[in-house]
Amino acid sequence: MNLQPDFKSLDRSLRKQRIIDTAVRVFHEKGYRAATLDDVAKDLGITKAALYHYVSSKEELLSIIYIQVLEGSFQSAYQIGERNLSPPEKLRMLIRHHIKHIIAENLAMLAVFFSEENQLPEKDFHKIRQEKRKYSRVVERVIEDGRAQGYFRDTDTHLQAFAIIGMCNWLYKWYKPGDASWEPDDVADHFIDLLEHGYLREKDKPGDAEAEARTSPTRKRELLNELKTQLHNITEAIEELEKLA
């Protein structure tokens, strides 16, 4: 049962948002190519001719959806990059914000966003690509600062940023709102822990076996005996030199 107010009873600004929300749902359910403005108008309970008072084409609707995602969800992420926080804190906040506020709260919109980009008019396509690169640069700068300050390993900044953003973006494919298994914060916690600690147990991480061998009791005894031998040889050399003096 639809409990939303009738479209015609809304203010014009609210009507425009209702059109956008409806288009997102229709494009998501039917696919952008298969969906039509007739489908959107029918869902709204108005005629296609009435819909043309608000949008000129299906392509314009798609562009509006993209602009809304970028101006709404991405803009608040840019502010995180400007905060006076350490790079690890910034990166954790960016990951959590991306999962909770960019993806989980806008799953249908983001499904359209990620799958229909090549359907945009050319000028809008380039604008969207520029904004996406701008967002990637925010993440890259945090990684670069973290490397420079000694927080992060010396890795390829671009690949690291793409990996983090890609991991978060993929939620739109599998995350189900209301799933009792994970809340968005649970997903964010897991992703952050995975990024910061990896997937290997501590004892299985490369280099740990060598470190353990170096500190084992047997190895310690071997090192002690080697040191005693070296000291004995040095002592003999000193004594020999004294005889020659």
Task: Looking at this protein, list some descriptive labels.
single chain, 245 residues, mainly alpha, Arc Repressor Mutant, subunit A, Tetracycline Repressor, domain 2, 3 domains, 12 helices, elongated
CATH class descriptor name of the largest domain: Mainly Alpha
CATH level-4 homologous superfamily of the largest domain: Tetracycline Repressor, domain 2
Please tell me what the overall shape is: elongated
How many β-strand runs?
0
**CATH topology of the largest domain, what is it called?**
Tetracycline Repressor, domain 2
Number of domains: 3
Largest sheet composition: none
Secondary-structure-based class equals mainly alpha
The sequence of SSEs as H and E is HHHHHHHHHHHH
Name of the CATH architecture of the largest domain: Orthogonal Bundle
If you compute it from the alpha carbons, what radius of gyration comes out, rounded to the nearest whole angstrom? 30 Å
Number of separate helices: 12
Percent of residues in helical segments? over 70%
Report mean pLDDT, rounded to a whole number: 85
Describe this structure in a few short sentences:
By secondary structure, the protein is an all-alpha fold. Helices cover 71% and strands 0% of the residues. Helix 1 packs across helix 2 (37-44).
Layout of strands and helices, then pairs:
Layout: H1 12-30, H2 37-44, H3 48-51, H4 58-81, H5 87-103, H6 107-115, H7 122-148, H8 157-169, H9 171-174, H10 184-197, H11 208-215, H12 217-244
